[in-house]
Write a structure and sequence with these properties.
The protein has 226 residues and is an all-alpha fold. The chain has 6 helices and no strands.
């Protein structure tokens, strides 16, 4: 093991992260349902009109749904960053060499414009393969779960930003409908994103636990290698 890094169990952070991912998934489903109801109201506003009370009730429901979702999203981002930092340090403590990104940059790339389109995925790819096989990890193929996770992440992020920008500038019903439609699709994409992230977190956590202490898991419970 490396003298520069200390192996620390991922169990605690993984558990918190999984809870937040599941909670975020259900909140996304709630947000999608709220967007659907808003679309229905906007459709009726064009044809038969809606009264002020219904419009205010819609705005209140959207606020009630969106604020918890935003709070959980922020908490998930923080915990996920902490989880990545520890997981990256762990594989180094276990003896992995040649990772292209330090624990700090594995998290930091998410905040660098343009480079955040591929660098975080590159860092996670290294992390997954090194967790799966500490020595000779570079010879491992890129796992499908990383590719799917990153595609969902990019699509969800692009759609979410687009919906927010259009909504802020919307002055007509067609613009509001467009923003709501995009938001609905974005919320739906958050569900598979959360599911794939749960799989990713579970696999890396288990791989590292087995590499650190093979006796901690019965052999028949060891994760399959992609």
């Amino acid at each position: 093991m490396s003298n520069d890094y200390e192996y620390l169990s991922l169990t605690g952070r993984s558990t918190v992260l999984k809870v937040l991912l599941v909670l975020g998934m259900f909140l996304s489903l709630g947000a999608a349902g709220s967007s659907y109801l808003q679309l229905d109201m906007l459709e009726r506003a064009v044809t038969v009109g809606v009264d002020e009370d219904e419009a205010e009730a819609n705005d209140f429901r959207e606020t009630v749904v969106s604020l918890p979702g935003l709070a959980v999203y922020i908490m998930t981002a923080i915990v996920f960053g902490m989880w990545i930092y520890r997981a990256n340090g762990n594989v180094r403590a276990l003896g992995a060499r040649g990772l292209r990104h330090t624990p700090g940059w594995a998290v930091g790339w998410f905040f660098v414009p343009i480079l955040n389109l591929w660098k975080p995925c590159e860092a996670m790819n290294d992390l997954y393969r090194a967790s799966e096989r500490v020595h000779g990890w570079q010879k491992r193929q890129s796992p499908v779960v990383i590719v799917v996770w990153w595609i969902c992440w990019i699509i969800s992020g692009v759609l979410g930003q687009a919906a927010g920008r259009i909504a802020l500038r919307a002055e007509t019903l067609p613009q509001l409908k467009l923003a709501t439609n995009i938001s609905l699709v974005s919320d739906c994409f958050d569900v598979p994103l959360a599911l794939v992230a749960l799989l990713l977190v579970t696999k890396i956590q288990t791989h590292q636990a087995v590499a650190h202490d093979p006796m901690s898991y019965p052999e028949d419970e060891w994760p399959e290698r992609d």
